[in-house]
Amino acid sequence: MPVLQRVVKPTTRKGKKVLLGREPKVIEDPKHALFIRGRNTNELTMHFMKDILALKRLHATMLNHKNDFLPFENIVPVEHLLTKHNSSLFMFASHNKKRPNNVVLGRTFDSHLLDMIEVGVESYRELSDFPGEKIMVGTKPIIHFMGDFESSQDLVTLKSLLADMFCGERHVSGVSLAGIEHVLVFTSDVKAGKIYARSYRIKLKKSGQRTPRVELEEMGPSFNLVVRRTKIASSDLMKIACRTPQEAKSRPKKNISKNVLGTTMGRVHIKKQRIDKLQTRKLKGLRKTAEERKAERKALIQKRRKNAVG
C-alpha cells in the first residue's frame, strides 16, 4: 500500500518564501550543518563541537538541549531535526563508558540519510589553547588531505564528509591571495588507524619580491580521530546524489577557440558573396553602355527560353 505524503502549502508570504528556499536549485546553497547534543556528553565533546561551530559560523546551528536518541539505532529523529532546520549535514556528540568522546558525522539527501561515520576524538586541544589571532568569520579554508585515504571505503567516505563539513562556499568566481587565511590538514595513518587533524593560520610576510613569504602558525583546534562504526551509502544512491543537472553542465561553444596566448578567437560563417551584384557608388565612368545593356537583355531572354523548353 503506497504511503501518502502530506503536501505542505504555504499560508503566508513568509512561509512561501521559506518553502521556495528549500526547493532544489541548479546551483545549491552552501551546505548547512546542525550540531546536536546527545543524552550524555562530557566537557571535551561539547568544546569540540563549539570549536567546529566557530569554524563554520555562517553555515551552522547548534542545539543546546539534550536529545535522547542515537543515530545508529534510530535516524528518524535526526532526519526530522535536519528537515526542520533546513540542514543537510549533522554532528552528533555523546559520551559513555563503551564509546568515550564519541562524535557522529553524517549527511542527508532528499531529507533522508545518505551516509554517516562514528569517530572517537583523542588528544584534543581547544582553540583557546593556542595563542595568537584567529581567522575571520566566513573564511573559506584550504583543505589538504595527506596519507592513504583510498585504502578503504570508510576512509573515502570520511574524506568526503570532512570536505563537505569544512568547504564553505562551493561556487566562487575568484579567490584573492590576501583572503587566504586558513588551512586544514588531515593526515591518515593506516597502521595506527588514526586521522590527525591540524588547523593553521596563514601569514603573508614581506619577502623583498612580488610574491610574499608564506608562514603557517598553528591556530587550533588540534585532534585525532579514530573510526568506529560506519554506515556507507549504496553506489546507486550515491550516484543519484552526485548527479549534475543538465542546466549546470558547461556546453562547448561552437566556432570559438583560444590560441596559445589565451586570446579568444571566433569564426563567423557567411553566405557566398556575389561580387558582380554588389551595389557600389554610381559613377559616370562605371555606367554600362547601350550595347552592354542590350547584350544583357538578350542573354536573359535566351536563358528564360532555354528554361521554358527544358
Report mean pLDDT, rounded to a whole number.
86
Helix content: 10-25%
Total strands: the figure is 12
The number of helical segments is: 6
Structural class: alpha+beta
Overall 3D shape: elongated
Q: Kindly provide the name of the CATH class of the domain at 28-171 and 178-242.
A: Alpha Beta
CATH architecture of the domain at 28-171 and 178-242: 3-Layer(aba) Sandwich
**Strand content of the residues, in percent?**
25-35%
Q: Report the radius of gyration as a whole number of Å.
A: 33 Å
What sequence of helices (H) and strands (E) makes up the elements?
A: HEHEHEEEEHEEEEHEEH
> Can you tell me the CATH topology of the domain at 28-171 and 178-242?
Rossmann fold
C-alpha termini separation:
75 Å
At the fourth CATH level, what is the homologous superfamily of the domain at 28-171 and 178-242? Brix domain
Low-confidence stretches: none
Largest sheet: 10 strands, mixed
